[in-house]
């Protein structure tokens, strides 16, 4: 694509030079996300500081037929915020104000560029939190969380990001500023466009501000690390826990390979002793909030008496809590460290999880025995992550070919279980080839029609999800 | 409109006579809802028993250009399911299966016609519930709850109906059956059409089946009835309660007029003694789930020591709990009993509730002193109901004229507070004139475009919300 000077000239009379970057280092950084697979190629990065500036930029873009890629913390893993076709990246990172907390309504107005963890830190002194929580919270931004309906480690207790957004300010390509739902808890006045934008990965409008719904920080938490023989035992423990533990706030699972590689990479002494050289088999991190110790002890006794687990330990200090969580949240980075990795993020209805796991696990063991394969995930959401490491001796193109063949089989199995090819990472560019396993052709047609209502010229985040 | 024989003839070869009613008594019943303001006028009532039958009916309807009004328990208060223009009413009441409960995934598949309370009763033996709960649960149906994103008395704890629907089966006018989201907890594969249909009041597609998300029944509950001097005190108590009570599950408010008329109508001895002839002023029903008694006693002491309330009583038995809730849930029917009533259902951001109430309350007192006016609502959701009784001596048309004038002022005030003209009752036919106070002209245009994607001929629930 040739450089569209008209657009940048018009922008230069709107934004100061400090809000426009065009150098190749910045483009390599801002046109890429954590998937790191696609080759970034962008014309410029713009850094609006207000919703008004976003509106002005989009008006100019429409005038010049300039494509735009909205961009947050770029922690995505599906290429949803990657620019590959000389688009202009619209970074929201300077639109990052965090407003005052309303303690009566438990709400907080922020810019789309506010960092997730900064929001947590802001709320903490009030005994409050925005319960959207996951490993990349130190980099991810609120706008990106909303655009991808981010999941994470406490969906089991709080639900996805969708549940924690009261109002959205967004801008369509024609420059119109939309304010959906204000700060209302209840507003049944027709279709709720807020929920259309949540999870739409920036293809309909640019999210610029949000009113977040907050909740009380837990007053206390008990965190356990359990060892179990196999995945069937994990599912059994989950069924027991969900039924018997009132304030279950996390139920995370990882296999032996994840546990080994993570404790080794992070230099953590395994909190549970391995009975054999092969370790335990599988592990569960279980968290309970606001529970009294007596009640917790009662079910802990039951868990051991009924042989639900083969070993287990309860965090005895805040440091232990941190260590257990560090293991869980360090899995992805530990697997990725110094390795090329192919990753999947799938989900099935929870009652089918055990059968699904059994199906795919035995296939991987049989057909891909030469690879290091890692399983972990959010069992309570029916969500499994599968990571495959490229053997050092294999070349990249061969690995990618193998991964695609393997994926096809995974997705075919998934479709039989009515599962999702992207439980929480979104579709972006990297999962487009798989979307038809989870959505019907008719749904994809409806996406296109929806897209044409919001962005008739197809200038916003082009090529993502559909097209 | 003239009778469209072609449609009914085609239907008669699809459905047995027992699934088609055309008599005037049935039409008066099935073409009407609890608002009871509009004159029902329908051609026939159809009772499909399966999603397939719904699909076949809608195909035939499209062929004959026949308008359709989907219909549930008809407990709506905005005329969203009323047929006034010789439409065909599509009652889902025979599509009312309730499937087996999946205890692992806490999910339940039901037909749209399943009665809300029947779903509760079905779940109870498993220690589970579908936490959508309100006064008309004995008649309302799941499909209607979803189509209106029903609120109710426990939104504060569980959120609206939207949060408790895993999957939706629906049928568009062309007869296509859509299955949105299956039974997945997490599925980030583009726009979530499920959330488009939830709250769309049957103008896009007919909801025929749903997979509901369940949760554990509370193991215990403590219910209090407090008396307070005025609404400012109510807001103060709410702020305190929300911050200090971990498992607050309901915070309902009613004024003295509601309390008097309800206890009298239901023949309930007031659980709190009135200090003067004028009573206390205002009342709060507060419910806490799964709380230990010691912690509850501690804050109860605080509540009294800080003079948050002027009087209060805790339910001492399950019978007390029932009585307190009976008062709250009996308000609407008690006000309506033998009276013509004009009702409003509005909401504002919670932090603005006190100022908003003060504004409208003083205006009603000043300008409408000759009317009996009742205020009650779900304070925790920023949601107030205002009911005005027609004086016995006034004629209906004069009352309606007054109510409309009064509404106009209410809505103007509401718009200043960025509130909703329909917090939980929906727009239907009766709130259409007010929708522009809560939604922009551009949003209404977008509604129309959305409608044309799903129902290009405009045959489904015509005239509702928009048009």
Write up what this structure looks like.
The structure is a homodimer of 467-residue chains. With 467 residues, chain A is an alpha+beta fold. The first copy, chain A, is built from 15 helices and 18 strands. The first copy, chain A, has helices at 5-12, 24-30, 51-63, 116-123, 142-147, 155-158, 193-197, 231-244, 256-266, 293-305, 318-329, 331-336, 353-367, 396-416, 441-454; strands at 20-21, 42-46, 68-71, 87-91, 98-102, 107-111, 128-129, 165-171, 177-180, 206-213, 215-216, 221-228, 248-255, 282-289, 311-314, 341-347, 372-378, 383-389. A 7-stranded antiparallel β-sheet of chain A has the order 15-12-14-13-17-18-16, with helices on both faces. In chain A, strand 5 (98-102) and strand 6 (107-111) form a beta hairpin. In chain A, helix 13 (353-367) packs antiparallel against helix 14. The first copy, chain A, starts with a helix and ends in a 13-residue tail after the last helix. The model of chain A has no long low-confidence stretch (mean pLDDT 94). Chains A and B meet through helix 7, helix 8 and helix 15 of A and helix 7, helix 8 and helix 15 of B.
Keywords:
homodimer, 467 residues, alpha+beta, seven-stranded antiparallel β-sheet, five-stranded antiparallel β-sheet, 21% strand
Q: Give the overall shape of chain A.
A: globular
The side-by-side strand order for the widest beta sheet of chain A comes to 15-12-14-13-17-18-16
Q: What's the average pLDDT of chain A?
A: 94
Number of helices of chain A: 15
* Greatest interface (CB-CB under 8 A), with counts per chain: A-B, 81 and 80 residues
First CA to last CA of chain A: what distance? 19 Å
Quaternary class: homodimer
Task: Give the proportion of residues in helices of chain A.
Answer: 25-40%
Structural class of chain A: alpha+beta
The count of strands of chain A amounts to 18
Low-confidence stretches of chain A: none
Major sheet description of chain A? 7 strands, antiparallel
């Amino acid at each position: 694509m040739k450089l569209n000077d008209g657009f940048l000239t018009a922008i230069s009379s709107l934004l100061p030079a400090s809000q426009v970057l065009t150098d190749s280092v910045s483009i390599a950084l801002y046109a890429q996300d954590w998937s790191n697979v696609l080759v970034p190629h962008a014309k410029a990065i713009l850094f609006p500081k207000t919703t008004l500036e976003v509106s002005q930029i989009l008006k100019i873009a429409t005038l010049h037929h300039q494509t735009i890629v909205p961009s947050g913390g770029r922690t995505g893993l599906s290429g949803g915020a990657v620019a590959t076709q000389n688009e202009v990246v619209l970074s929201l990172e300077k639109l990052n104000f965090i407003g005052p907390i309303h303690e009566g309504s438990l709400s907080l107005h922020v810019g789309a560029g506010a960092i997730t963890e900064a929001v947590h830190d802001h709320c903490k002194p009030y005994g409050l939190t925005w319960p959207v929580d996951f490993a990349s919270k130190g980099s991810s931004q609120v706008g990106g969380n909303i655009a991808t309906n981010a999941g994470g480690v406490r969906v089991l207790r709080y639900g996805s990001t969708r549940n924690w957004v009261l109002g959205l300010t967004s801008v369509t390509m024609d420059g119109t500023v939309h304010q959906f739902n204000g700060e209302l808890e209840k507003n049944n006045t027709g279709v709720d466009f807020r929920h259309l934008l949540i999870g739409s990965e920036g293809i309909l409008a640019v999210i610029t501000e949000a009113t977040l719904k907050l909740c009380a920080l837990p007053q206390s938490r008990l965190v356990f690390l359990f060892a179990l023989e196999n995945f069937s035992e994990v599912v059994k423990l989950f069924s027991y826990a969900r039924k018997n533990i009132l304030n279950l706030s996390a139920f995370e699972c990882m296999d032996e390979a994840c546990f080994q590689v993570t404790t080794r990479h992070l230099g953590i002494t395994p909190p549970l002793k391995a009975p054999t050289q092969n370790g335990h088999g599988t592990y569960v991190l279980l968290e309970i909030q606001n529970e009294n110790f007596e009640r917790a002890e009662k079910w802990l006794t039951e868990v051991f008496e009924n042989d639900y687990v083969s070993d287990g330990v309860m965090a005895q200090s805040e440091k232990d809590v941190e260590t257990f969580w560090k293991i869980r949240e360090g899995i992805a980075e530990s697997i990725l460290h110094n390795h090329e990795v192919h990753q999947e993020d799938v989900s099935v209805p929870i009652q089918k999880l055990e059968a699904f796991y059994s199906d795919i696990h035995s296939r991987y063991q049989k057909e891909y025995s030469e690879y290091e394969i890692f399983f972990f995930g959010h069992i309570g959401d029916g969500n499994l992550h599968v990571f495959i490491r490229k053997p050092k001796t294999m070349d990249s193109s061969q690995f990618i070919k193998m991964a695609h063949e393997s994926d096809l089989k995974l997705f075919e199995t998934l479709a039989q279980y009515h599962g999702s090819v992207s439980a929480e990472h979104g579709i972006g560019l990297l999962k487009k080839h798989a979307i038809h396993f989870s959505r019907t052709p008719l749904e994809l047609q409806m996406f296109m029609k929806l897209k044409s209502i919001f962005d008739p010229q197809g200038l916003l985040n082009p090529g993502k999800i559909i097209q």
